[in-house]
Each structure stands twice: as structure tokens, then as C-alpha cells.
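C-alpha cells for UEVLD enzyme. Go.
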Amino acid sequence: QYKFRDLTVEELKNVSKTYPNFTFSMSTYTFKDGSQKDLLNFSGTVPVKYGHSYNIPIQLWIMDSHPFAPPICFLKPTPNMGISVGKHVDAHGRIYLPYLQNWSHPKSTVIGLIKEMIAKFEEELPLYSLSSSDAARQSELLSYIAKITEGETDMKSRNKIGGKSEGCFNKITVVGAGDLGIACVLAVAAKGIADKVILLDLSEGAAKGGTMDLEIFALPNVEISRDFSASTDSKVVVLTVNSLGNAQTYLDVIQSNVDLFRGIIPAISHYSQNAVLLVASHPVEVMTYVSWKLSAFPKSRVIGVGANLDSERFQYILTNLLKAEVLAKGAWVVGEQGEDKVPSWTSYNVVANQTQGLAARNTREKVANRAMEVLKGKGQRSWSVGLSVADLTDSILKDKRKVHSVSTLAKGCCNINSDVFLSLPCILGTSGVIEMVKLEEDPLVQEKLQSSAGSIHDLQQQLKL
């Protein structure tokens, strides 16, 4: 069934010589539209050096039009591995690389693809080991949920704690019933911050998996619906949907998400005209921009989860692991998600003596670099992003006026002149972003933010809204 069988076989022989650990087989691949095809695929590990040497498990599906079409690439993590979502890897382990986007026979080869894969993975490890602390956090979340299901938290006490009267109805809608959407529902329910949580399941077919489990065990105040009208008058709408399918390039994947949002955002905006849109879909910077454009909401009420989780972790690492509590004050991770994020500060006590001040800055830079290295080893599981979403939702609903690093319109900051969303420290309240907190002037940080803004803007220009 392979149109260019001889060319395909010859190339795979070369792969086998270079990577003898790979195993080949024919299996059925299911595409986005539900169609299936028997395709040649091979699985194995590629060596990656990231401080230590790691063997990263991958699986490549060879299209029947190979070598004129690029392979479809996935990570194949073992049960004790987690996927680190980034610029080149999505939450499902799908791998996206410039090499795939620019694939052209005979210049492009599978060997060349694997070499670029190794190079990108050495910049940012795509997998991490699930630690005992990860398991402990999951157990903690589940214990909170158990308390809710046992009725240990009543509505009146939650209203009182939240500083709201019983007549104030806090409703949250989570759009998307995938792993991330369900994690957000569980985390919000565990926090006890909403009177009603709507989970909009937009998937085709009958409810299954986690959605079915939610129906079976019936968490209090959680409702599952397939009708947009169920979201009416939500205070916060969390967007977690991502398009899955057989898109061949990173741009195709984003465009597929844009097409998906075209059918969601106008309906959400119609039923909840005063809501704050909180975007967790990937890539968060671009999809927050798309949500802003499609909703026509003011920029203050469209934000992305951005680097909130990274910032909380960064501050925790500085304080608890590196014992640098003073440096943790005003410390943030800003920019875009993935390898281009950068540490920054909103305040720093510069010593009057210039020499001492320079020494203090050098110390801070060294400690920050160590903290960022630790941070790179922490992946973002669905449940951890869910906890971050609950944290942001809590600040919005309770008008906490707390500072978070979230994706916000960055135009006018750091000499950025385009409509792009980047993570920056912002004060959050019931109306979304109340105020952007000024960053300490640092030429390296500004250069990084401007570079990210440029690449994101170029990508947005290629999208069809």
C-alpha cells in the first residue's frame, strides 16, 4: 500500500543501522476524522544529554506517501514518566518540530528528523520522572474531593469564607471534558470557591471516561452539559479544549484550534457577557489572543494561565529548596510558556554602594539560574495545571487583588508594539486584570520578551481568524 515502497524501505534500513534498538511493526492509526489506516511504525529510544544521559522513548508513524510526507511523531512515556508540555510537545505527547513543518524530499530524512529531535530535547527535556511529591499532591487533591463528597463543606460556610453573601451566585464554566478540563473541575470543586461548576462536554458521542465517572459519583454543585446555554451568567469561563488530529505542522495544529474556538467563543460570549475568559488551551499565548479577538471582550477580561504555575514553583524553589527567601520576594517567571520563559523581578533592593549592588545582582542571577534548572525538571501534568486554574479563579471570584503571572496583552510593555499576549505579573480581581505590575528594568529580560513577541506575532499573522 506504500506508494514509494523502495524509497521507504531503503530509508528505514538506514534508520535501523543507526538506531538498532528500534522495533518495526504494522499497526492501525486513527486520524482526527475517525478514519483508520494500517501504517508502518517504529518505536525505540533516542539518546539525549541534559546534564545526565537519558533515553527518550518515541514512536514514529510512517505515512503511506513517505518520503514525500513527514512521519507523525509521538513520545511513548512509561507509567513512571510525565510529559512536559512545551513548544515542541503537546499534552498527548505529539511532537512538533520545524523539521517536520519544512519537510521536503530528498533533503528531509528520518535520520535528520531524529537528530533535530535530539537537539530540541537537549534544550528542553520532554519527559520527567513522576516523583513521590507528585503522588503526594495528587493524594492531597483527592482527599479534598473526598471531603466535599462526604458533605464536610457546606454552601453557607464557603460563602462566608469567600466574603460573599448567600445571594451572590458564583458560577464557573469549564469548556472541554478532556483530562485538563476534568482536572480543572476537580480542583475548583476542591477549593470550594464556586456555587456551581458547569462542565461543557463538546466531544462527539456518549459521555465516557472521566465525564462518565463524574456523572456516576455526582460531585455536589457540578453539572455536565452539552448545551452552551448551561453556561449562562458565568463569572469565569475556563477554556481547556484542544483540537486533536492528523495535522502535519505546528501551524496546522494551531489553525485547527482556531477553527474550534470559532464555534465556541461567540456562544460563550453571548451567554456570559460579563465573564472573565481564562484560557488554558495550547499554545496559551496565541489562543488567548484568539479568544480576545473572537469575543470582543475588553483586554482585562481575557487572560491566559500563562506562567502562573511556573511562577509559584519558582518562588517555592527559591524559598524552600535554595533557602533564598529574600530573593523569592517579587520573583516571577514571565514571557511565553516553554523554553523561552525567563525569570524577572518586580522589586529589588539595590544596595547603595555600586560594588555591593553589582555583587548582589550577580548572586541573584546565579541563584535564579539554579532555580530555573530545577524548574525545567518539573513537567505540567493536567492536575497541576488544574490546581493553577483553581488558584487564578479563586483570586478572580474573591476579588483578592493578588499578583499572578498570567498571559495578558503586552502591547506597550517593554517596547512591544504588536497585539500579543505574554505572561506578566498582574493584579487580578473580579474584572480580570486590574493592573499590570511594573517589572524591574533588565535589558536581557526585555530582549527576551521582545523576541517572544516577535515570533508570536509572526505566527498569528499566518492564522485565519
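The chain has a mean pLDDT of 83.
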